[in-house]
Amino acid sequence: MHSSKPFKLTTTDITPLLIWLAIAFITWTFMHSADHFLALTPEALGKYYNLRWILIAHITAGGGSLILGAIQFWPKLRNYYKKLHRVIGLFYLLAVIVSSSCAVVLAFTTAYHVNLPYAFSLQVWVSVWISSTLIAYYSALKRKFELHRQ
């Protein structure tokens, strides 16, 4: 169901859409540069070989969350298609849960092969990502939309 307001793209929609396209392109470029991991060989994966499926899930779901999350901030989507905003939000939540769960495993295992500060910083980042996403989801469930938008 959509709002009764007519859907028209305006000049104020150009900036958010260009930002989303830039994020989608950067994400595609990064994921394309990770194609060598799909060989799933010890040579291609190095220290990630024993956790190859966790790494693949992290990269795939992380890319999905970047693309889905960015489009959620476009006001026209929220205002015109609230159901679509909710569906994309649920897919985003799922992508974050999968990617961040994998990130926790990677941060507590292979990241220590780099060094302790690197591993710790990844653990902090994943904690912030999980926490902020769950707070936003909870506030939407409680219909506290101003908090949800923050």
TrEMBL record:
It comes from the Bacteria. The keyword Methyltransferase does not apply. Keywords: Membrane, Transmembrane, Transmembrane helix. The chain crosses the membrane at residues 12-31, 51-75, 87-112, 118-140. Coiled coil: none annotated. InterPro entries: DUF2306_membrane. Pfam families: DUF2306. This is DUF2306 domain-containing protein. It comes from Chryseolinea lacunae. The lineage of its organism: Bacteria, Pseudomonadati, Bacteroidota, Cytophagia, Cytophagales.
